[in-house]
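Task: complex structure prediction.
Instruction: return structure tokens for all chains below.
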Amino acid sequence: MRIQWWRIGRFGRWTGVESGPLPPGLVVIYGPNEAGKTTLLQFIRAMMFGEAWRDRSPYWPEEGSVAGALGVRLEDGRNAVVERYADRRRREFSLLFSDGTRAGEEQWRALLGGVDRFVYDNLFAFGLGELERPETLQDRRLAARLYSAGAGLRGADVAAVEQDLLRRMEQRYKVRGKRPKINDLLREWRECEAQIRRLGHPGAEYEQVAAALARCDAEERELAEDRRRLRERREELARIQQLRKLWEARERTAAEWAELSELPDVDPETVTRIDGLAERVKELRASLEREETRLARWREEREGGGEEDVLWRERERVMRALEGRTREAALDEERARLVREREELAAREADLVRRLGPVAGGEASEGVPTPARAEAAALWRAVEREERRWRDAVEACARREMLLEQAVSDLRRLEERVREEEARDLGDPPGERREWLRRLREIRSSRLEEEARIEALDAARRTMEAARDTSHRRVWAVLLAVGAGAAVAVAAVAAGLPLPAGAALFAAAVAAAFFLARTSPDRSRRRSDWERQRAQRQEALERRIREEAEWARRLFGREDWSEEDAGRLEREWEDALRRQAALSERRRQAEELRREVEAHREVLESERRKLDQIAEEREEALRVWRRWLEERGFPPEWDGARTEAALEWIDRLSDIRRRKREIEGRLGELEAEREAWRRELRSLCELGGVVLRRRDGWESEACLALEERLAAAQDRLRRAEQRARMIRDGEERMRETAGLVNRLEEELVRERAALGAESEEEWRRLRPRFLRRRECREQRRTLEEQMRRLAEEIGRPDLLREVPGWDGDRLAGALSELEREEDRIHRRMRELGEQRSELEARRRELEGGRSLSWWLQRREETAERLRREAEGWAVDALALYLLTRTKERYERERQPGVMKRASTIFAALTAGRYRRIGVPLDGGPWYAEDAGGRRWPLEQLSRGTAEQLYLSVRLASLEELQERGVRLPVMMDDVLVNFDPERRRRAVRVLAEMARDRQIFYLTCHPEAVADFRSAVPGLPVLDWSENGGGAGAERRMERG
Amino acid sequence: MRLVHCADLHLDSPFVGLDGEDGSELREQLYDATFRAFARVVDLCLREGVDALTVGGDVYDRETRSLRAQLYFRDQVARLSEAGIPVFVVHGNHDPLSGWSAALTWPPGVHIFGPEVEEVPLVSGGREVARVYGVSYARPDVADNLALRFRRGTADTWCVGLLHANVGGDPLHGPYAPCSQDDLAEAGMDVWLLGHVHTARHWVHRGVTMLYPGTTQGRHRRERGPKGCYVVTAGEGGIRAEFRDVDVLRWEEIVLSIEGFGGEEALFAALDGRLREVRAAAGRPVIADVRLVGRGPVYRFLRNEQWVEEWREEWRRRWYAGGRGVWINRIDVEAGSPRDLEALSREPAFVGELLRYVGERRRSGDWVDEARSALAPLWEVPEIRRVLGEVGAEEIEVWTGRALNRLLDSLLPEGD
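Output:
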């Protein structure tokens, strides 16, 4: 990866700074102090890995946000733009590839090859501060991440994975932990075990519970028996106590009776009746007093009544005036409606006048007579008709002109073509040559036939020659047959068979005779015929050949020819004939076109004349129409529709004006009516002395006042009448009540006197004694009856005689004692009930076995979870173990390579003064070994040499990472400042060499360093920030040495 | 003669290896499962009208027998007693005679065999149809060959041997009352009704029918598939055994390959399909252990334990709380991503180094001990050791594979 450009939106003190295109390889940025070199270094780091507000970077601008972009070229050849923005609340990242695709930060991290910010800051983009911190190189984190970076992990971090595994393991299990899952499950498992141990042997407990329940039953039975006895005794004592109380009450009643027995026996109902009479008299007297008070008040009210209102006398007029208010409201509505209508009409009138114009819309043009309308319609139709005719004529002329132009154009084109073809060679027509060719073909055909005949003759002769050869073979066959016949005959004779021998000889003789008879004697004659015919045919053939050569010379100019030549010749003839025919056809067409053009011209002339005539008629119709319009004050440009509409508007205008006049008349009537009503109102107000406060809208105030006055007068009259009636009724009632009171008082005195009470006071003294005497008598009887019954219930009627001798306190004491005992038994019974409930619940539980089963099931489930979590822990533990071991081996095997490379670089930087950097595997301190083999601890090295060693290790690490595919831009901020000139030049050469295949930015404020770089790399690009330091927003100038 | 034989009821015993939830309906079902399974056996006897029920030991799960289990067992056999069906019971290593027994009154027709072999006639319809020979364990750890104590009597009827024993030294079960098939055959019984092995099977040895009915209710992930009892019929055609399932819940394992799944939707759909199949095939609620195997792109989700856990919880809710009767007990991810480990191990990068190192350690022969030492911090906890036992070589191998997968998942981005 290399940086192609950067754009600093906002970072540090910089805003809107953009670099130009940046070259690959080594780039030196030169600038004095405060030019912004370190800011650039921080910016590159921030763009690579992001920046957050919580990092408290000093490069965060005061505006509270950073923004920027990097253009990079990736290892796969693609270009990409990384853009970042961050403020206090949010962070945004964008990665856009040159092919238009976008990706997230995860992919960007993958492109960075697993290098994180820590590694980048210490190996890729570092300043003197980082270089001088040796501890970072020995930091385990750096080592771990260094080996993660480029270890093929593509984004993962071995250290992070280790931490994650440890975290996961600790989430599951920690020695003496409480929260981890396994610790928790172990606690649960132990609890299950304890519960199972407790519940695991239910037999003994079941029997204990059963025994306890049996004990409960026995004790409950005993207690129930005790309680029954106690209750019986308590009930008996309670009755006796009750008997004693009854006796005491009877004794008290008897003593009282002795005092009251001398009084007459008065029925309580008589006392009640007398009490009722006295109460009734009392109530009536109170009623009389209340009535009297009320009548006095009413009379006073009647006396203070006042005079009759003057308006009440004129109430008819007042009522009419008030009704006028309602009518006035209705008239107001009508008035408003008329005014609105008048306004609308005025607006419509103005609109129509505007449309018609001042003349046509004037007051005088009201209404258009119907004949005028018919006239206008007729005139306009005439205009339209003439217009249509004129347009048709114009179109006809135009159409005709177009046809004429078309015909003329076609004629010109055709004549041009005829001329062109006439000028061109059309080829020779065949003429008599077609006949020559036919003749030549016939001659060739004859020649070929002759050749075929000669061939046939030759073939016949060869057949004949072949037939003669066959005759020789037949002779030999006959001789052999005869010989064979003779041999057979000899053999037959020798065998003594003369008949077969004779037959064989005869057959041989017949065969010889037959063959000799078949051999023809005219073979020589046929040969001579053939030779003769052959000669004749040969002669005819030669003649044909000569004729063919002659005709061929005539046609083709040579003797040899073929059908292809003949075909080509015929095609030429056909072309020439076709071209001739086409030329003739075009000439004919041109002639026809000329005639057509003339005809079009004549018709056009005729139509133009007709058009002029129609145009004059059209003008005449228009003139008549416009004159008619002018006569009526209409604009002359109006057409028929517009005029018709205008006539319609004039009618409407006339209607509107008529309606306006009607409205005006009606408004006048309404105003007169209102004025009359107002006068009446004023008159009534003056009569009634009503003072009006308002000037505007006084009518409603006056109406309201008049209404109130009338209502008040009416109300006063109504009240006075009501009071008079009530006073009369009240006086009548008082007279009746007073009579009743007198009668009742007489009756009351009579009743009391009958019982011996001459006065009210005497009655009040005797009355309770009468009542008590009767009560005592009844009470004594009741008590004696109750005592008798109780004694019978107890079963000892003789107890009544003993009662006077009993001690009440002793009886109460004995009863209390019994109640206390019963309470005790009750409490015990309740305790036993609770105990029984618990025991029965426990027995049910034991019988149901649920709790033990539940714990057993829970233990199994806990064990299962424990098993699962332990497996998870084991997997993580094994993973961690394998990872740690692998990492150790990986580091162990890789580290020597890095240090060997670092030693080489260190030797180059120090011109061989030191040859090796030593890093003990047991983690001991690093050292430098000089050329003589002496080991120098780092603290004994000079500052410059130590920095050269650290630089060497960093560069070696970069090389190592590059070999693993991690190639990121390197940025060094004046790290050579403490080197002596010679070693600086050497370092510059090393950096220049490394920059061959990676991008290295070297930031410096030292001109001598720039000079060293320029001398090491001819044509080195140097960004000079000396003039425009501080990042003022201008693009930096790049110089090439 | 027609009888039902069951064994290993393990009434009131917990389910092992189950990840339940407190207060869930599942726990209630588990709690009743062994009881309801036995009730179904009794229902079967009543429905089939058999001559007897034989119980081949381990009626209860513990020597200290659960009172509830004893009462329940008594109540159920009382139903058979009322129907006139005798019950023959032997006790095994889980419920020997030495264990506590409530003072229960057994209903008529229930015969519980003692510590010595007894011969009891089986009377049905007023006539003796068989002789039942049986013996119970006097104590849990019976190591004697009890089969040798059985001898056929002189009765001319079917002779049935009822015994809780490990026949043929099954290594997966405790070596209680060990005996061989020959020992059983020589006892002269016509049929051996056995108990102790939790998988149903029956076979004929030297003309003698022998059968283990298995447990009536699977209570462990290893006790998968149908569980029940045998209906044994002896007649002129010989002895015939017919298996009937009575389990209330069924353990099933679903092995699902993730190969070919492009996204999680496909994975969900495949699992749903398998769950539907398993539930339909079982015809009763199912406890399913899901194993995801193979390699495929969907592994990018499975590598996240949190994701898998959420998935399991959601599917439990859908498939169990939704009334569909499938409890997803666990989802074990044994799958991996489709990465080429061979190619990675050849890379010079860190991951290659890791793969090479793991390969070397596995081949070294010391890896099991090395891994045990790495796991010692947890395995030294006594409870862990008691629950999980010693870590075996096989477990080390499996865990090492998972550890390697985890490392690769962490070190390599998705897709590599």
